[in-house]
Amino acid sequence: MKNIMRVGIAFGIAVCACLFGCMSPETQTLDPSDRIVFLGDSITAAGVRSDGYVTLTSQAIADAYPGLEIEVIGAGISGNKVPDCQQRLERDVLQKKPTIVVIYIGINDVWHWRRNEGTEKGDFEAGLRDLIARINAAGARVILCTPTVIGEKTDGTNPFDSMLDEYADISRKVAGETGSQLLDLRRAFMSYLQEHNPDNAEKDVLTRDTVHLNPAGNRFLSSLVLDALNVPQSVQ
User: Fold this and answer.
1) In-domain check, residue 8
2) Which helix (H) or strand (E) holds 77?
3) C or N: which end of the chain has fewer Cβ atoms within 10 Å?
4) Within a domain: residue 235?
């Protein structure tokens, strides 16, 4: 998805208070000339819908900074894994001349192991490093997200919990070693679910199908992104 949304719409976004270890000390404020690209999979592709997290983030930036002309661009494609993002980085991201790139990838790298088509951990790490190096070389900074959830149970019984934790650890390591800002979505999602999923439900708290976000999930993810961007949020 390559929808470009020029911010300028007033919006009050509902904010969840659960941000647990999601921002690194390098958090920066936005500049008037910023162009933010969200690189990811189907979660980000859906994020440009009217109630998606990319749109909510764009509208909240407009509410906080009505005088700025900051662009927000969604670059999510369903089914994508890290190698797919590497292949299309130039076309879908670098050609947009971003100043900030939010990389939210990793779900399919894990989930596709159910049909033996996931991404090997070494390739996942090398691919993230390649993406970050190329983005930095183009003059943009990176906010690297950890993968979120494949199932919302909080007792460790989601089938891919252990593997997701391993891949999230890789993302944390890569962010630290490349000096990239870390947005630890997995930690934040699990912390939220510990509080808001008392029945240990598999879905329907933040996701509609164990992976893809429902309206609450989109609002929650947007609030985390806005915190990472140091954008003030209005509460309704």
Assistant:
1) yes
2) none
3) C
4) no
